[in-house]
Amino acid sequence: MTLDEFRWTGPTASGYRSPWEIDDGPDLYDERFNDDEEEFPPPDVGLDAGRRRELAAHIEATMAGQGCDGTLRAAQRWATTAGVPWVELKGRLQQNGGFCDCEVLFNVPGLADGGPD
Predict the structure, then answer these.
(1) Which InterPro entries match (predicted)?
(2) What was the pLDDT predicted at 78?
(3) From CA 55, how far away is CA 66, in angstroms rounded?
(4) Quick check: is 1 in a domain?
């Protein structure tokens, strides 16, 4: 006997078919529908593109020397120096997942690249 003679070719007596043999239509994930980034505009943090880049650069420079200390200290220092109202900026950063300086860089969409104007 050869291996092909032992190959299963149809339903068993119980009618069970394994999950990989069932054709249940199209895959749930389809590249054509992968447009999540286009559905939602970047959050408004109250800064134009140039200021967003300045804030990101300041945070990156501060963290390069000191690392993240779990606060928004670098963002607050930049806001004070740039004349941006800190309480309002802090609220907007936190609404978008920026609860410390490194989270601002990682979580606030459009910050590091400046995002759209």
Answers:
(1) DUF2695 (IPR024248)
(2) 96
(3) 16
(4) no
